[in-house]
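Most newcomers find our protein records easier to grasp once they have seen one. There is nothing in a record beyond a sequence line and a structure line. Getting from the letters to the tokens is the skill we practise here. An example says more than a description, so a record of this kind follows:
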Amino acid sequence: MIDNNTLAGRIAVVTGASAGIGRAVASTLASQGAGVVINARRVARLEELADEINQKQPQINAKAPCTIVQGDASDNAVIDRMLNTAADHFGSQPDLVVVNAGRGLNGSVMTSDTSEWEEMVRTNLLGAAKLVRIAGHRLVELQETREWPSKPADLVILGSTVGRHISPFSSMYGSTKFAVNSLAEAVRREIGPKGVRVTLVEPAIVKTEFQSVAGYDPEGFGAMMDKFGPVLEPEDIARSIAFICAQPASVHISDIVVRPTRQDYP
């Protein structure tokens, strides 16, 4: 893991930080000097990660470099609490928000479990849209207090390669990421001119607990990972996000697709 101060002075909020990509992003941002507020539903996992970061990284403004806000990232009250906690704990408004919380679902429109559809859409699309809206307004207000282009402000949204290329084996999940793709580009056009960078990050196969939670067949998906392997690790995506956010305020990497070298599709 990169260990430097390229993000010193930045205050980040990371959702879905209890495992996988979110956990790696929080650790990586902290290792590069950012203060981080981490969010997920599983408080024990959050406490474990916060302890790990706080033991490794120096204090920021005499405060622990990582603090937690447990709860559903699609809940308006939780969103407000995340952003307010960042400001209260670190003494300045967050200027880096990673919209990562989400869930998968095995199967297509024809084969997936319809009882899971509404929850997935609520989490992946509506929850992401709520956080983008609330955080986006705050980031714009923050940039209005700064002399352009003195400091960057970032809104990083996690998509997926199946939100760019149609994949029948996970088309219901992919449809929510297609929507997130459109959402990110529209918001970029709206608040980018106001000094807020909106970046869509679309990973391909990443080895996390995501696949088992989504209900993918271990044997079939395992064979796919073997075919494309070595597949991505969460830290690969975290490094990419840290690089994006470390650019000068006038430089905007609008979207990025990250695949294992041998993965041709999707």
